[in-house]
Amino acid sequence: MEITITINGSDHASDVEPRTLLVDHIRRTVGLTGTHVGCDTTSCGACTVLMDGKPVKACTVLAAQADGTEVTTVEGLKTADGLHPIQSAFTDDHGLQCGFCTPGMMLVGASLIAENADPSDDEVRWAISGNLCRCTGYINIVKAIQTAAARVAESSNGS
Amino acid sequence: MFPSRFDLVVAQSVGEAVEAKADAGEGGRFLAGGQSLIPMMKMRVAFPETLIDINRIAGLDAIEQSNGHLQVGALVRHADVVASDATFGAIAAAAPWVADPLVRNRGTMCGSVAHCDPEGDWNSVLLATGADVVAQGPNGERSISIADFVDGAFTSTLGEDELVVGLRIPVPSGRSGGSYLKLERKVGDYATVAVASHLELDDSGAISAAGLALTSVNPINTKVADAEALLVGQQPSEDLFAEAAELAAAAAEPRDDVRGTAAWKRQVVRTYTKRGLAAAAQQAEGS
Description:
The structure holds two protein chains of two kinds. By secondary structure, chain A is α+β, with helices and mostly antiparallel strands. Chain A is about 35% helix and about 15% strand. The model of chain A has no long low-confidence stretch (mean pLDDT about 95). Helices cover about 35% and strands about 25% of the residues of chain B. Chain B is globular.
């Protein structure tokens, strides 16, 4: 079936089989491999993308269900000015070890700070509770998301 | 992993969806959030020949109070229930405990109810609060009480040709409170044990209505009717709740498994029933 998904701001029209999963469509058809396949069973969140602004597990959404939606993958975080604040905060705070969960963690973090300018430890941990880090590097992930929130708040106050 | 082949029908109206289901027959399944169905299809434990996607149908995404009921449309996601101001008691308590935040952004309350996973949270909550499932078939709409709807593991009394279009949950008119206590190994896991409690109080402070239901300790979500009967007409007290907890523990027939021993789970039922009823009573007294 014919579908069009706006991925990171560009329209991608394709003819997909109904059983094609969104994550496979993004990786194989569109060629954006920053979205990872981890457990493939709706547990780990490595496949997280934002669908109309909300984080979802792309291994558990049919590509056909995303027809007409706006999808943001990790590749879509960076702006014309450079890295998204969440990306620079993950770099500065060492919010990653092996990096496998990182795209999902950053997308969930970006979605959280868009709604909550100053998330507490509990609020960050709650938001990322559907994303697993097998390196167990949660302390710095939480810290990085809070750093990004503080930087965004600071730059919007300054402007 | 990916599902076996199927035809996808994207329905634009309830009528169209019901018609597509009638055409598809036994091989047809409705798709809402898909957070249970898609994983089952990927593991090839479900292999519908036709999937009828209801996500594009307008007007099914409202959660609101009207006519003394909380009305929940078929496309209301768990996250919408978490965010809603229209919820109360056990409904509000349970919503943040369903699955994980990402799954809650897609999965629907009505889908969970219709799925009838015996380890699902919502059917216990609704058995405690009371609710009607609104089903639409080729011959129109009908309401099925939740106690009649939940029939067995992954089995409801919904007709082959019917779609769950919404839930109607009575909103208590007087003082009321509720809770949902869930023990889980990690966020997103099935409950090891969960207990849903719902209490309504009359002007004298006595319990005028009570609901108590258990998750994951029987082959099906279980309403503890004898405990409910015991509670009604009594003043809330620690002793009363301990007595109800004994009946709840007796109603539970958990199994030894990776999440714990049967004896330990029964003890958790006992403890959570006491705590859950106390929390419900406290909320009701403060309301």
